[in-house]
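User: Let's play a game. I give you a shape written as tokens, and you guess the letters that built it. Ready? Here's round one.
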């Protein structure tokens, strides 16, 4: 397990080589907590054979389930894809 005390965005597996970790032989499974930017570095170059996107069942800060967050000043029904908004220029 590699933990960082700083916010770090791992965008490619080869950046872990700076930690003197041989990523080709050291891991059978790699888990990264990342919101974005990992696909190009792990999927597009063929490094990852499989990518599983997971999220806790309960909503939390950063969730993709925006309709589950407790909005007080926004009516999500006015925004796509949660409602039927009328776009400017639309009849």
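Assistant: Ready! My guess for every position:
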């Amino acid at each position: 397990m590699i933990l960082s005390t700083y916010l770090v965005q791992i965008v490619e597996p080869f950046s872990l080589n700076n930690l003197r970790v041989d990523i080709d032989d050291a891991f059978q499974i790699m888990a990264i907590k990342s919101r974005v930017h990992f696909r190009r570095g792990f999927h597009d170059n063929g490094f990852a054979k499989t990518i599983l996107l997971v999220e806790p069942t309960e909503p939390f800060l950063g969730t993709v389930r925006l309709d589950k967050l407790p909005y007080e000043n926004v009516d999500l029904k006015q925004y796509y894809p949660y409602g039927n908004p009328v776009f400017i220029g639309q009849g």
